[in-house]
């Protein structure tokens, strides 16, 4: 019952999991209306028709339900393009300055930016509309939640950046030159400690940070905050700088750490959202769409 209606109301949702969840919520609303009509003595078939009429046009509903996810995909594309342009800019600058650090970071950013931009361009339909929806949100997603919860997100991100600055400098202090390959050991420990710094605070406060795992715009803000704290600490005190980065300029810390923090948070948000069944809508938003 209502299968065609449910399909029409969710056909713009590309994510199969979100599509099933949306259909389940719409079906729940339809069943509630249908039960009320039956209780009033309406025929079952007529009650089913009246339930659909009460919820309204499924095409209009489809547009409203798909908008949050399409907007976030638009932001993902914009971030990917920004990373690609930043990488190309560093490569061009490295040819003029003959800086090996600029060239190394530029290559990584360009490769990652090209991969993510290609994925976000060819994997999703309606790209132009997604970008328009993203740019229409001129407040960058700040207006969708209470400031108190937003401050918790930013504070957690700042803690992540500070931990990364402290922990990632430790292996070079404790790993002696007598180790069979001190650089390899220190790099491996550095990556492990960065994972702890990038994911630890989010795991610790995960129950209060659902917004950060639902909203890509807040993941961007969180990554910017972590990047700012990390870069400020490294520039303020050279003891926080791991030896491989001793000749990096501040702009390299900003670009490299933003990509790292954003990728780490996206990975954590993906798995946490699957585990906790976090959807792109809040309950009040899907009720208003219905």
From TrEMBL:
Name of this chain's protein: Uncharacterized protein
Origin species: Sulfobacillus thermotolerans
Taxonomic superkingdom: Bacteria
TM ranges: 74-93, 145-174, 180-204, 216-236, 252-272
Keyword set, alphabetical order: Membrane, Transmembrane, Transmembrane helix
């Amino acid at each position: 019952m209502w299968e065609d209606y449910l399909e029409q109301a969710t056909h713009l949702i590309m994510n199969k999991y979100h599509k099933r969840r949306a259909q389940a919520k719409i079906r729940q609303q339809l069943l509630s209306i249908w039960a009320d009509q039956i209780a009033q003595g309406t025929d079952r078939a007529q009650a089913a028709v009246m339930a659909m009429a009460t919820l309204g046009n499924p095409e209009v509903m489809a547009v409203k339900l798909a908008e949050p996810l399409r907007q976030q995909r638009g932001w993902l594309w914009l971030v990917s393009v920004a990373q690609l342009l930043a990488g190309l800019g560093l490569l061009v600058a490295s040819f003029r300055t003959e800086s090996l650090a600029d060239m190394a970071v530029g290559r990584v950013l360009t490769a990652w930016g090209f991969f993510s931009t290609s994925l976000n361009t060819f994997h999703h339909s309606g790209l132009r509309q997604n970008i328009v929806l993203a740019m229409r949100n001129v407040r960058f997603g700040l207006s969708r939640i209470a400031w108190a919860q937003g401050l918790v997100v930013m504070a957690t991100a700042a803690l992540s950046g500070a931990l990364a600055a402290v922990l990632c400098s430790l292996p070079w202090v404790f790993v002696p030159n007598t180790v069979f390959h001190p650089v390899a050991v220190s790099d491996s420990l550095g990556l492990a400690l960065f994972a702890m710094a990038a994911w630890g605070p989010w795991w610790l406060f995960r129950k209060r940070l659902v917004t950060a795992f639902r909203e890509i715009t807040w993941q961007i803000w969180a990554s910017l905050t972590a990047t700012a704290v990390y870069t400020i600490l490294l520039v303020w005190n050279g003891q926080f700088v791991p030896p491989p980065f001793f000749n990096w300029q501040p702009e390299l810390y900003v670009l490299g750490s933003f990509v790292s923090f954003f990728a780490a948070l996206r990975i954590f948000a993906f798995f946490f959202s699957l585990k906790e069944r976090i959807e792109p809508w809040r309950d009040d938003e899907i009720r208003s769409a219905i």
